[in-house]
Amino acid sequence: MVPPEYYLLLSAAVFCIGLFGILTRRNALLFLMSVELLLNAANVNLVAFSQVWGNVTGQTFALFTMALAAAEVAIGIGIILVLYRNFDGVDVTDATTMRW
Amino acid sequence: MVYETIAFALFALVTVGCSLGVVLVRDVWHSALLLGGALLSVAVHYVMLQAEFLAAMQILVYVGGVLILITFAVMLTRTQPEVSNT
Amino acid sequence: MAGILDFAPAIVLLPFVSFLVALSVGDRLPKGGAYAGIAATAGSLILSVATVLTVAGGQTYDATIYTWAEGLDAVDLTFGVLIDPLSAMMLLIVTLIAFLVHVFSLGYMNDEGETGLPRYYAGLGLFTASMLGFVVADNLLMAFMFFELVGLCSYLLIGFHFREPGPPSAAKKAFLVTRFGDYFFLVGVVAVFATFGTAAFAGEGSFPALAEAALNGEASVTTFGLDPQTWFTIVGLLVLGGVIGKSAQFPLHTWLPDAMEGPTPVSALIHAATMVAAGVYLVARMYGFYALSPTALAIIAFIGGFTALFAATMGVVKREIKQVLAYSTISQYGYMMLGLGGGGYVAATFHLMTHAFFKALLFLGAGSVIIAMHHNENMWDMGGLKDKMPVTYYTFLAGSLALAGIFPFAGFWSKDEVLYETLIHGLGGSPLLLGAYAMGLLAVFFTGFYTFRMVFLTFHGNPRSQTARDPHGVRWNVKGPLVVLGVLATVAGVVNMVPIEKLFGIGGIDFLHQWLDGSFEGLTAHHYADLIPYSSSYIGSEATTVAVGAALSLGLALAGSGLAYLLYNVPEPVRHTDRLGRIKGLLYNNYYQDEYQVWLANGVTRPVARAANKFDGGVVDGVVNGVSGVSLFAGGRVRRIQTGVVSNYAALLTLGLTALLLAFGILGGWFV
Hints:
The structure holds 3 protein chains of 3 kinds.
Chain A: H1 4-24, H2 28-53, H3 57-87
Chain B: H1 2-24, H2 28-48, H3 52-77, H4 80-85
Chain C: H1 8-25, H2 34-56, E1 61-72, E2 75-83, H3 85-110, H4 117-136, H5 140-158, H6 166-196, H7 207-215, H8 228-246, H9 255-258, H10 264-273, H11 275-285, H12 287-290, H13 294-315, H14 321-341, H15 345-372, H16 385-388, H17 390-404, H18 410-427, H19 431-459, H20 466-469, H21 476-491, H22 498-504, H23 511-517, H24 525-531, H25 542-568, H26 582-588, H27 593-638, H28 646-668
Antiparallel strand pairs in C: 1-2
């Protein structure tokens, strides 16, 4: 059996990659994908500990996260399409009207 | 034991590599495909963690649902000039 | 007759109904709603007569009609009716005068073709109703509310001719000046509630009774750390503020001469029965409270005596007949205050009654003259009206004799008793009272002079203008009230012939004394006589004192009248006022009281207000503006982090999360 520390490292790595994507990329779709990466990193973490403790609590949480991710993507797609229609592109730095 | 560790290392490499690809490649379409790879490799990790049901769900929900939606979005928002640029 | 007192609220409600009728459908009724008012006041008059007869039979009545706020920390605010000899007498006076004024208004307003009559009669109805409500009030708060209603009605009626420049200004002045006094009254009412927890006039738990018990150490009341005697004096003086405003005592008398801008019947009502009488009546009503405080009594007496003299001197030089009467009213109410302050409760009440009759008579007579003169009020344009309008002349003469205090007219008896009571109590060791007495006595001379100057200028001599040669006739509705009041002004003195009793030893003809004794325990004249902090002393014997006092006041009145006779009862009188030189200007301008008060407003109040405004605008607003300015500035800076770019938000989010994790880590010792 693989030690849980390895999974933690993997999870942390994927999480950092996702964060990096959010902070650096300007494409709204990349935002969406990076968020998926973040959620998956968290899921891996949950499932790894679920195995360590020998119960399914972590797995159950992971299931909820999946449902949440699916919903989030559905909404996100809608937002991105509207963004695209209104600003002729999916660059998030273009849409700066919602301030002050 | 050793095989398991080797398998983990292999798939961890795939996961991290695909993830890096997602955030680093210029073309969004390629990003989407690499995301699919990353999600699938995470499903493999689930199997190795004896969470088979969750692995199945991962493939069904993420790869079958979320990724398809993202693909739609990528196709719908692709603009002509951008294609010619890349 | 049992149970007739249960109808006492109807006395108040009937004029109120006439107010509603005149207001709502008055323009569709004949005579602009006059008959509704006449019927209502006649009904009230009949009920008042029945009430007086019942009270004469020894019954009194005190009932709470309606509790409109209860459970407030043991203080219940109620409307109640208190019928005792004092209020019964006042009811009779008010309803009688109001009835006669309504009838007179038929001649003065309707026959003269005035417009806006429904408004006029509505005002009269409400005026009468609020005064009657004030008279029957059984607690101080209810009295205050009706007191204010009376003030409101006076405002409405004085400003009746609101299209002319004078009346609205006079109405505003009357309203504001009396309101200034009422402000103190309101504070006094609150003080009474805070001190005694009740404001009832009569009964065991009434506030005068509680105050008396507290002074004797039998009860404890909240006196806010002061000696009870001092505190009661303060409360009494606060309430006295309202009295001074309403009864036109110095220095708040300035509204009353201006109030002559109102229609003459309204002046009669204001001066004789309602507005001005309200102040004196209030002091009489809570006399049991004032009698406990020698200081308050002395102040009342001194203000009264001073006002009596002060106003009488101003009345001497006036040109308009109503102005003379206005100053005489101020002066006469000064006498009443003098009587009350001098310990002559019955005397003051007596003077209130006789004055109501003869002053209403004089005003209605003046109204009759004004009708005849086509609304010219200048006495120098009159003259010789004696033969043209004999009814008015003889009734007016009766009223003038009463006003001047000539034996045996009503005013003589009451004024003499007021002065007598002040004299004996002053001789009993109160130099302040003696001073007030001296001023009152001196005012008798001036009263006689201005009264007969007015009579001679108006009715005697040769006519001095075309209208006086051919005056406008008056009808029964003017003459009727004049005759009724003329008879009363002549004979009303018999209800209280104390001098005769004292001089000749005939017992039992001081009917008013007996009448005012038949009240609730604690509200009787005897009780008040026991309470007042004066002792009596006489010049020689009691009879001598009576004789000397009466002879002095009668002699002075005759001297004043005689001087007026010499100067003005000639075919072509000349303006002797010019001989007064600079004093004439002083008197004619009312001792510059108006100017003085305007100066007070302009020279003192306005700079203070301006300074307060500057403080408000500079400091208070400055602080508020400074706070908002800092907030605005900070907000303007802070909002710059809200760029609208999602990436920045994400970066901030991450930074925040990292900072939080670091904080947790350092505090939680993760890195050790």
